[in-house]
């Protein structure tokens, strides 16, 4: 059998894994985990559910909804939520020129939401949320490393809600815990993230967005972008026939009315292969706040050695215009006024290049550090600058 022969070639050291019976044509040479998986790399749905059950004592675990495939979406909440209701809708409050009419009597509270795994094949953000929960529970990530500044920043926020995996269907579909590292070759990440057509050709980005819903029968493997209904949750039919995952997020936003949301993805720019925050298609009045947030987070990443240089003047310079897409973050902003931003991580599975064209791999440790530094600086920003009611009250 050709597949068996290919598998026998030790191109990349890995540990074979069983496939997914729903997608029997996944090539054997792709069905392998990284040879050594750090204990902190908790990325699989069952392992996360066990982690939440056993380790969450200070927070409260809640099911915020079910996926198209009927799977529970779990969140963990810390602190006291906003109490009392506003007198109008978010849109009404904007029309009334006072967002506090929507936020209600305790509009001054500060509420943060973190999302992992809106795309099921993007493991870095999932591992990041799990380790963030560990820090909130114990002061330490799953390596045992203390994060006193993150703990202190979190203590200044009234309410934190974390969803380790939004697209549970997409994550469950991928039978790997950690992809092998393949140098500058993104074969594992591309296959499992954006999928492959029946004829073996990668679907790839951005073609994966040309077909929503994606018909799985046309694919050898549909990747981790879509839920079980074939829908990429970043580009749902937000104001029409929404997916249950989107509805669960909208309902969560209605209850929590967050100020700031980090939507953690994997997809750093290949020519500057470091964590980057993207400008959302949000209300124009939040633009200056976004730019200050961007400066804060990229400064923290640079000083932590997690950007191309350690110079904030380079790494945290004013973000470019023109890449703001109407997507989930725009929908969440329109729904409740949250400043919702995508943050793209490099992948553990392949290396990109820095601005000088040199190949820059990222260790699993660096990837986790970047996740936690982003949360630390984001929470610090929210604590220092106040939330929605302060940013653009009138
Ligand atoms: Zn993504």
From TrEMBL:
MF term (GO), any: metallocarboxypeptidase activity
Superkingdom of the source species: Bacteria
Domain annotation Peptidase M14: ranges: 57-269
GO biological process: proteolysis
Matching Gene3D superfamilies: Zn peptidases
UniProt-recorded name of the protein: Peptidase M14 domain-containing protein
The organism's taxonomic lineage, starting at the top: Bacteria, Pseudomonadati, Verrucomicrobiota, Opitutia, Opitutales
């Amino acid at each position: 059998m050709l597949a068996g022969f290919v598998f026998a070639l030790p191109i990349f050291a890995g540990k074979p894994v069983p496939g997914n019976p729903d997608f029997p044509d996944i090539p054997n040479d792709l069905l392998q985990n990284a040879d050594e998986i750090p204990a902190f790399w908790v990325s699989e749905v069952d392992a996360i559910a066990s982690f939440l059950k056993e380790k969450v004592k200070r927070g409260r675990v809640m099911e915020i909804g079910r996926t198209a495939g009927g799977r529970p979406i779990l969140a963990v909440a810390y602190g006291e939520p906003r109490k009392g209701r506003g007198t109008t809708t978010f849109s009404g409050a904007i029309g009334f020129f006072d967002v506090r009419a929507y936020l209600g009597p305790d509009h001054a509270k500060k509420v943060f939401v973190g999302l992992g795994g809106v795309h099921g094949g993007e493991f870095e953000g999932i591992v990041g949320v799990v380790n963030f929960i560990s820090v909130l529970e114990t002061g330490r990530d799953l390596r045992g490393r203390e994060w006193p500044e993150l703990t202190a920043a979190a203590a200044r926020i009234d309410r934190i809600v974390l969803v380790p995996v939004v697209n549970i269907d997409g994550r469950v579909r991928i039978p790997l815990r950690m992809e092998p590292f393949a140098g500058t070759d993104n074969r594992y990440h591309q296959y499992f993230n954006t999928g492959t057509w029946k004829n073996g050709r990668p679907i790839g980005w951005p073609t994966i967005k040309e077909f929503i819903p994606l018909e799985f029968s046309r694919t050898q493997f549909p990747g981790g972008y879509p839920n079980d209904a074939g829908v990429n949750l970043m580009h749902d039919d937000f104001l029409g026939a929404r997916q249950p995952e989107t509805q669960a997020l909208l309902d969560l936003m209605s209850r929590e009315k967050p100020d700031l949301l980090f939507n953690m993805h994997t997809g750093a720019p290949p020519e500057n292969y470091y964590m980057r925050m993207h400008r959302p298609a949000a209300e124009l009045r939040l633009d200056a706040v976004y730019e200050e947030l961007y400066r804060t987070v990229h400064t923290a990443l640079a000083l932590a050695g997690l950007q191309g240089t350690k110079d904030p003047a380079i790494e945290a310079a004013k973000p470019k215009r023109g890449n703001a897409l109407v997507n989930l973050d725009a929908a969440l902003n329109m729904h409740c006024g949250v400043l919702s931003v995508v943050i793209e991580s490099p992948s553990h599975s392949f290396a990109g290049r820095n601005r000088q064209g040199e190949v820059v791999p990222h260790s699993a440790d660096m990837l986790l550090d970047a996740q936690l530094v982003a949360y630390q600086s984001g929470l610090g920003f929210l604590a220092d600058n106040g939330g929605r009611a302060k940013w653009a009250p009138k």
